[in-house]
Fold:
Amino acid sequence: MTGTASIPLLQVQRLVKTYRRSRWSGETTFRLEADFEFDGPQIVGVMGANGAGKTTLFELITGSNRPTSGRVLVAGRDIHQVRADERDRLAMHYHQSYQVRDFAGLKPDFLMQRSNSERACVHLFDEPQFNVQDGYIGFMLDFFRRLRDEGCLVLVCLHPNEPVHIDILADVCERFVFLSRDEDRTSRLRFTADLAALTADAAARRYLGALAERAASA
Structure:
């Protein structure tokens, strides 16, 4: 299943995920807020410091984490209302070594909706491992592009700690998302069209550190 002109591939609607110090405590230790959509196929770079909520966002999109409020629609289907054993037919979360993250639902599958899809249209790569020594980078970038060309949305989360990571993001991504945690312990998303625009954000420049200038000129 791929998106159409009337059905965006991904809609994240007023999504909130809140963690508290304990079940009985009113103190919020982390809060993620997101509200956005991607209409059609593209490759999106996702960045943010450790603890900013990147993996949490991916888990919410694939249905392996339950939102406090809001919803996620993948190709028009509410991912959290779809059978747990069919959610990867809508969105797939690949973690680091390209293993697919799995999950179990709280409701029995027979009470949930069917995915009505045979293959995922949203693919989320969570800090994939790129080894410059083994020639694997070109293969993976071609894979990302092939998924996009087949009508899929591809989100690539990287934590750039060396120049090659900036080069990878600049080469393959058509849009960027930066997650930043504010003083109120809330993580919010900032969207930019390119890396140069991202570096105009003070929080992003602090995050990139010595690589900010490379990103600005990428």
Remarks:
- The longest strand covers residues 10-20.
- The mean pLDDT is 88.
